[in-house]
Amino acid sequence: MAEPAHKPPEPAASRAGSKVERIVTHCVFEISTGAWPPGERLPSVRQAAKEWAVNHLTVLKAYRRLVEQGLVRNVDRSGFFVADSVSAPPAEQRELAKLFEKLAKRFDGDADVSTLAAFRYLADLADARARREPELAFVECTAFQARGHAREVSNRLGVPCMAMTLEELEEEPPSHVRTLLTTGFHARQVRRRRGDARVVTVPIEFSPRLAERLAVAAREVVFFQLDGDVAAHVARDAAKVTNGLRVVSAQADIGRVDDVVRRALRARSRAAVLSPSLWTAASRDLKLHERVFPLSFEVATRAWRALERAARLSIF
Fold first, then answer.
1. pLDDT band at 315; cut points 50, 70, 90
2. Which structural domains are found in the chain, ordered by start?
3. What distance in Å separates the CA atoms of residue 221 and residue 240, rounded to the nearest whole number?
4. Three-class SS of residue 86?
5. Torsion sign over Cα 113, 119, 123, 125
6. Is the confidence at residue 279, as pLDDT, over 90?
7. What angle do CA 160, 165, 170 make, to 5 degrees?
8. Where are the alpha helices (DSSP H) in 38-178?
9. What is the DSSP string of 23-50?
10. Is the pLDDT of residue 45 over 90?
């Protein structure tokens, strides 16, 4: 595996900025993968400064950046907390019950159409409109990820969900999209481009199905990412669910992904997992290699109830 090129010492200001970015990266990963759930208190500024061996002002700057991104909220005299990803469900049961009674009276006693048939027809019309104009969209940095998560949502919740990339979101989302789902990694970018839609952050977890495939394919797995810190975080999370596998991380550039990965695969007991960006840049031959896999996450199991509310499928 290629060794990183030697770089000259960076200016002090640049090093400070780098420390802030590293803390932000760490926190975003913990929040996005659900290790720090909504409402969880972040390590105190003093505690974090000690653990990460940085100045407390550096930690404070990183935490404030997370607040700006909408991932964290600052509670006076209490600290910093992971923001709630989904608002409370609307209390509309009584209004809907009244509307039902009003519509039901219209069909009571009708010899041609039963009340039940009328409401089933209304439900069919609602389904048809939802397929034509989905109210949900899952936004990710690549089409591969967006389609995967959108498919998860559609299959689990039984509602159409569009797949959108950050690039496609450069324009305002379609007017029929009322809710944009995304991971904590991209929450800030999505909020900047959301138009009138609301944004819901969705916790994700390392794919159990990918873990099973890796266990069959190799004894050691190398996780490749553009960012070395993110690669280390992914490898750490994967190690929790890939029992018996040796897990390591590595950084790779888009222009050299084929060469770097092929060198790693010279060991026949080793498999490679590529981040979505690196997978997109890899050659077709490399993607067909039996020991090369795209990195995949799935919506965290504990997130589905909250997503049901976010999709407005539950009012309870």
1. low
2. 12-82 (1.10.10.10), 93-203+302-310 (3.40.50), 208-295 (3.40.50)
3. 13
4. coil
5. positive
6. yes
7. 115
8. 45-52, 56-68, 93-107, 115-132, 143-157
9. HHHHHHHHHHTTSS-TTPBPPPHHHHHH
10. yes
